[in-house]
Amino acid sequence: NAGVTQTPKFQVLKTGQSMTLQCAQDMNHNSMYWYRQDPGMGLRLIYYSASEGTTDKGEVPNGYNVSRLNKREFSLRLESAAPSQTSVYFCASTEGMNTGELFFGEGSRLTVL
Amino acid sequence: GNSVTQMEGPVTLSEEAFLTINCTYTATGYPSLFWYVQYPGEGLQLLLKATKADDKGSNKGFEATYRKETTSFHLEKGSVQVSDSAVYFCALPSGGSYIPTFGRGTSLIVHP
User: Fold this and answer.
1) What is the pLDDT of residue B93?
2) Of all residues in chain A, what percent carry a pLDDT higher than 90?
3) pLDDT in tens, B33-47
4) Do A43 and B89 touch (CB under 8 A)?
């Protein structure tokens, strides 16, 4: 009963390093999302994928890229990490864009030094 | 686009106290409204929802009523427990794109 699985759960990077956060869902959902959560800011949408083969920018896309590898997997890449990207990242999925009910992973805590 | 505003926390209560967390929304039409809960160290999970005006969502003793007259969706619980300590988020789809938009979250701390 995995749901949404994110890896890694914790990561420490140096400024300028790159890394990819992986996300996979086993619920056959069409839509997937990447959010970041910062103290006092709630959740802010980075990128989303309405369906396999499509990706779109959210509220805070700068410094990130995404890949919808297949229906199950949606990865988030930081090409050149900056301290401002220190955050907790959440992947989420929904059956469709108009259902509104999100299923979240447990989060990936990223620290950029 | 659509948006929500939540009361700021933290909200600190003693066990068995009554809880209200305020949420007001701005929206075109009458979209579904949601409350999510985030327990320490976990991702968010849906707590309850209401799909149309005047609906009441309920789960685990929590309730919220979709009130179009006051554009509100306040979360209530009659008797909180220590295990309810968490961060609570109000949310709604952001206009035509249906992308879920969240409030800033309200931290609830319940003491024994």
Assistant:
1) 85
2) 82
3) 999 999 998 999 999
4) yes
Three-state SS for chain A is CCCEEEECCEEEECCCCCEEEEEEECCCCCEEEEEEEECCCEEEEEEEECCCCCCEECCCCCCEEEEECCCCEEEEEECCCCHHHCEEEEEEEECCCCCCCCEECCCEEEEEC
pLDDT in tens, A90-101: 999 998 766 668
Instruction: Determine contact: A100 vs chain B, CB below 8 A.
Output: yes
Distance from CA of A27 to the nearest CA of B (A): 15
**Which chain A residue's Cα is nearest to B35?**
A101
Which residue of chain A is at minimal alpha-carbon distance from B105?
A42
B97 in helix, strand or coil? helix
Record: contact A90-B44, CB cut-off 8 A: yes
pLDDT in tens, B53-103: 999 999 999 999 999 999 999 999 999 999 999 999 999 987 666 788 899
Closest CB from B43, B99, B103 relative to A104? B43
Out of A33, A58, A104, the one facing B45 most closely (by C-beta) is A104
- Which residues lie closer than 8 Å to B87 by C-beta, 6 or more apart? B9, B37, B38, B105, B106, B107, B108
